[in-house]
Every structure is written in structure tokens, then in C-alpha cells.
Amino acid sequence: MLSRFSWLAVACVASAALWAEETPDTLCPVVVTGAQTATAARDLPFTTSVVEREQLVENHEPNLLPTLTEQVPGLFVTQRGVMGYGVSAGAAGGMSLRGIASGSGQLLVLIDGLPQYNGIYGHSLADAYQTFLTERVEVLRGPASMLYGSNAMGGVVNIVTRAPLHDGVRTHLDVGAGSYGTVQTEVTNQVTKGRFHSTVAAQYSRTDNHRPNMGFEQYGGFVKLGYDLSDHWKASADCNLTHFNASYPGTTMAPLLEANQWITRGFASLAVTNDYGWTSGCMNLYSSFGRHKINDGYAPGATPQERLFRSRDALTGFHWHQHLPLWVGCRLTAGADYQLIYGRAFYTSRATGEVLDTPDKQSAKEHMHEVAGYLDLCQRFTDWLTVDVGMRYDWHNVIHGEKIPHFGVVTRPLSTAEARLTIDKGFRNPTLKEMYLYPSSNINMIPERLWNYEVSWSQRLLAGRLCYGVNAFFMNGSNIIQTINRKNVNVGRIQNVGVEAEASWRVNDHWSLTTNHSYLHMKYHVVAAPQYKGFAGASMHYGQWTATAGLMQICGLFTAVGTADDPTESCTLLSATLGYQAFPWLRLWAKGQNLLAQRYEFYAGHPMPKATFMGGVSVNF
């Protein structure tokens, strides 16, 4: 069901296209996710969304995901409170893109193009994706397994980390507080001196949240160092570490006590890049790792837990790619990946700390290896036609080999417009948990597979001040892992059809408007994947004042599945932020969320708070 404001937004864009005169392409975004090198989005066969830092920070969200939910059509992220997502039972932060879920490991999060997920369970960790380390986010909507391998079967969310943009030393401090004892702080220092540059940032946040026994506290730090070895070679190293303590209160129907979580996640990488103009490439050594301690809690009146669940995991790998021109208009990208996926789960006594047992089915199998190579050939035949074909071969030490093809065509019938056709295969290998942990584990599974067929149209008008795009897709997935009769088996299906549209209009130096909409039909329902999501936003800048407002409508969100009549939720959420530049170095801000005081749930039994408010200051020196 489309809302009235969505039809109005589409009508406005269509009318503007009728009278706007064709102009040169001046504001086409440059992205790296679809080609692993800086490439104009108009030349890519993939459907991509780019959210710049200006959009990420304007609403003072410490986590990236609420902003991405608003700005990216087809992407939805669940929440359960003012702040914090948590892990394990009852956790929020589940991302779905076109109905393909990160909780199942089918949607891949990257940091600077390198994979991030829990090595045991294969899913992303929502609380690790913080705004303070991010320059921009690029979302590739649709399978990206040819470039990024397993887990990218539904798309990728690539977090591009910050680097200094100006010479000298700059420091930024942001502090805020508000409803339910919520506090958020962030400090960033950036230095550029000669060939050296650095970014150092730290973050702290906490909240009581709106339900008893639902507190959340988080510490985080990020360091990125870079050095230009020569005009053509650069080296960089970065590390981010976050630790959070979260409490889970259970559902309103079945409350819990002492359901606490202590989680530490980290990521480190070392990169060497080269750029000679005619060729460019990169080598990366990286590791994503975590330590988890969880008390599953107990119902009021029952006996407290005598043991704690613990796990250690790491995803360590090497990545290489190089771009080579073969002849006029042709670019070949060759790449290789190696990953060692490690994980161990066990229990310890709360009283003594000793290891009690492990749920491993085969304790010797605590790690997996993946090796892959790929080739991508992009040929620009004329100014109006580009063809892109690619193939990846992925070898897994248990699952063995998988071939992943890619085909895309970009046509440019106008100097400011592109039409695209893509056919892509995505896949996901079974995780350590699915193969080796718990009674449901099964070593004889095969990869999940998905095919995506998509057509799209995008155009820039009014010298690039007005941009819009629309696309339609059909996804057909097979071998989806499900638990039947307490056994993991490849029997599930995916069959999703959808339409997405987005537009942005920089009206003048003071006003900007943006809107996006997505409609999704799922033959097989998925929790927290709305049938319709629409967003309309406006930002204003007059003198020392800035203001933003956003209205998001969600319809047909499944809060539970597997019943005769799966329950759905619909809501309309209004948010606004006001800022005042008191001095060149001092900015005051205030914001409100759910200003219509809607009652709604993203998960059954987990009501969201009504209207909440925050205020704070930003200091630059």
C-alpha cells in the first residue's frame, strides 16, 4: 500500500522531468563499492546508494543504521529502544535489504571494502557500526558475491572510514543528553602534515532505555594512520574497537531478569595501494574479531542461570586486486581473497569461572578456509553503451567450489541519464554454527544461492540539482537453510519482487528535499522486512540556523512469521533536528524522534518508545 505522500513525491519528480532542460552531468557521485576503485556511479551496472557524512551527522545519531534506514530505499533496520541493539535472543539491529536478511548472514557489511561479521554465526553486529569512524556509506542493492564472495548474496553495506580532508590539525567534540538518561559523546582529532595523516576518535554512550532492565552502555575507539610513500604508492593502517554492555528485558509477555550481555568487537587492517593512472590496485591484510559473554537470564520466580555462554571468533584474511587497461575502453579487474574463519563457543561457571562444556558437534572443526579468485571485464563500446561481465570461483575447505557469474549493461541514451540491466548470482556458505554447533547442526549442507534480475533508470536534471532513479527487480533463491525437525537442511526458498524509487532536489542555497520509496512482495515472509517503506525529508540552512525534518512511513512489516496469519505492523514516524551556530567554533542542537508519539513494534512483544528528545553542543577547534 503506497501512502499519499509517496504518490505526491513521485508526481513532483515526474513533472520536473517534463519541463527541466537537459544539462551537463555535474554532480554524478563517485563510488568504490561496485568496482573496487573510484568510479562514477553512472558507469556502474549496479544499483547503488551513497550517504555522505553531511547526512550521517546532521541528526546526531551515534550509530549509522537509523540514518541508512531513512536514506536507502529497500533497506530496513530493526530497533528496540532509544539506543543499543544487543545480540542473542531478542536483539534488534537486524538489517534486511529487499527482504534479504543480515541476521541470516545474507547481507554483508564491509569496512573499506573488507568483510565484517561474527565468525561463528555469520551475522553482522549492529552496535559496531558507528558514525564517528565514517566518511560515507555506499550501499550496493542486489547480489555482490562476484566481487565480495559469501554473505553478499543480498547486497553490501560498505562503510568508508574517515581521513583528513584539510592540512593542519582539527578537533571536533560532540556531546548530547536526553530522554531516559541517554548520554552520547564523541571526540575526533585529525592531523595532516606533509605525507603523513591521521584520524583518532573515541566515543561513549549510554541509556536506561524506556523499559526496566534494558540498559545499554558502549565505549569505542578508532585510529587510522596513513603515509604517502611516493606519488604512486600509499600505505595505511587502521583499527577500531568497541565494547558494549546490554541488558535484555524479554518480551512484554515473558519478561526476563539478569539477561545481560558483555560484547567486545574489533577490526584492524593494513593496506598498501598503488595508482599510476593507467593502472591501480590494493593489497589488504585484515582481521575482524570478537569476544562475547552472555547470561541468558531467567523468568521472575525461576532459578538464576548458573553458567554463562561465551564465544571467541575471528575472520582474518588477505585481499588483492589490480585494475589493468587491455585496450581502448576496456578495463580488466583481477582479484583474489583468502579467509580464515575461526570460532569457538563454550560455557563457564558463574561461581568459579571454569569451562563447563562446549556445544561443538565436532570440536576439531573450529575453523574454515575460503580461497577465491575473480575477473571482471568492463568494456565501454561507445559513449552510450558499456558492458560488464565477471566470474568468481570460490573454494571452501568443507563445501568445496562455487562459481559466481555477473552480467551488466549500462546504456546512456541521454548525457544525463542511464538505463541498466543486471543479472547476478549471490551465494552464502553455511556457518560454523550451522555445521558444527548445537543438535541442529549438519555438516552435509550446500551453499544458499540466489539469482537477481534487475532493470533501472536514473537521471540528473537542472545541472545536477535534481536527481532521481527507479528500478525493478526479481529475486529467486534456493537451498535456503532452515531448521526442520531439529535439523539444519537446505529446503528454504526466496521469491521477492520489488520496485524502488528515490529522488533528491537541491532547491537553492537554503533548501534541499529528498525522498525514497520501496515496495516489496515476498512469497515467503521474512521478519522485519516491510512491504512498503517511504521517506520524505527536508533540510534548511538560513544564516546561523539549520533544520532538518523527516517523515518515514512503514506498512506491512512482519513482526513474526510461521503462523497461519503472520502479524504485521504499520506506523508513521516523524523526526526533526534544529541547530544554531552560536560562534564559529560552537554549535547548539536539539532533536526529537517519533514526534507523533506512535505506538509500534518492530518485533512482537518489544514496544518502541513514544516521543523522545535530546540536546547538545558541537565544538570545533
Topology, element by element:
Elements: H1 4-19, E1 30-31, E2 39-40, E3 47-52, H2 53-57, H3 65-71, E4 75-77, E5 95-97, E6 100-101, E7 108-111, E8 114-116, E9 134-141, H4 145-148, E10 155-161, E11 168-178, E12 182-193, E13 196-207, E14 216-228, E15 233-247, E16 260-275, E17 280-294, E18 307-325, E19 330-349, E20 355-357, E21 367-382, E22 385-396, E23 400-414, E24 417-428, H5 432-436, E25 448-461, E26 466-484, E27 487-506, E28 511-522, E29 530-542, E30 545-558, E31 568-583, E32 586-593, E33 601-603, E34 606-607, E35 612-620
Parallel strand pairs: 7-10
Antiparallel strand pairs: 1-2, 3-9, 4-5, 5-6, 7-8, 9-10, 11-12, 11-35, 12-13, 13-14, 14-15, 15-16, 16-17, 17-18, 18-19, 19-20, 19-21, 21-22, 22-23, 23-24, 24-25, 25-26, 26-27, 27-28, 28-29, 29-30, 30-31, 31-32, 32-35, 33-34
Structure description:
- Mean pLDDT is about 90; it is low at about 1-25.
- About 45% of the residues are buried.
- Helix content is about 5%, strand content about 60%.
- It is mainly β and about 625 residues long.
- It starts with a helix and ends with a strand.
- Strand 22 and strand 23 form a beta hairpin.
- The strands form five sheets. It has a 22-stranded antiparallel barrel.
- It has five helices and 35 strands.
- The longest helix has 16 residues, at about 5-20.
